[in-house]
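[Solved] Which block belongs to which protein?

Original post:
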Amino acid sequence: QVQLVESGGGLVQAGGSLRLSCAASGRTFSSYDMAWFRQAPGKERKFVAIIRRSGGSTSYADSVKGRFTISRDNAKNTVYLQMNSLKTEDTAVYYCAADSQVGAPGYDYWGQGTQVTVSS
């Protein structure tokens, strides 16, 4: 079992920056692909970024490409999302998720979310 706890959300003005963290329990963190999703009010949860367990390759949603950076520190069991040049449309609850790539497709574990609010 893996528990994910996000932190770092808050209120920021447009153009500002925030860094989200997601701390994972357990000793197998390095074996998971880790991703960030977000859900704006009244909208579906959407993919933001992923960092693979092998080699650390990354991929981003077009809406955040060039502004957000996902990274991981396997020694600290933590994945980060550095968000720069924030826009009001980035306002959402941000969730981290872990995928073991074992069993049924989809993410195995989710955090409880952290609110990011970008004001104009």
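(Second protein starts here: sequence line, then its structure tokens.)
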Amino acid sequence: QVQLVESGGGLVQAGGSLRLSCAASGSIFSINTMGWYRQAPGKQRDLVATIISGGITNYADSVKGRFTISRDNAKNMVYLQMNSLKPEDTAVYYCHGVVRTTDRSPTYSYWGQGTQVTVSS
């Protein structure tokens, strides 16, 4: 069993910053890709950013230059530094991990419970 727990969401004014954290715990042998997705009310869940174990990152066009994803492989943690926040960034942010539980197991996809980010204008 693997758990992903997000923290760091909240209310911020436009132009402000927030830093999200996600801690993975449980039966973890390795984590390939970790990432952040977001879902605004009435909309689908969309990719924000991903990072693989080697450090290569990928960002949605809407957040490039404003958000930075990073990870601490030793601690099984992923972070999302969000700067220059806009009201359209308001959403529930979900942490995602692609996890191998043993050296011979297939990979499994896990999600956190989500953390609310609200940006006021």
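Accepted answer:
You had them paired correctly. Confirming on the second one: The CA atoms of residues 59 and 96 lie 14 Å apart.
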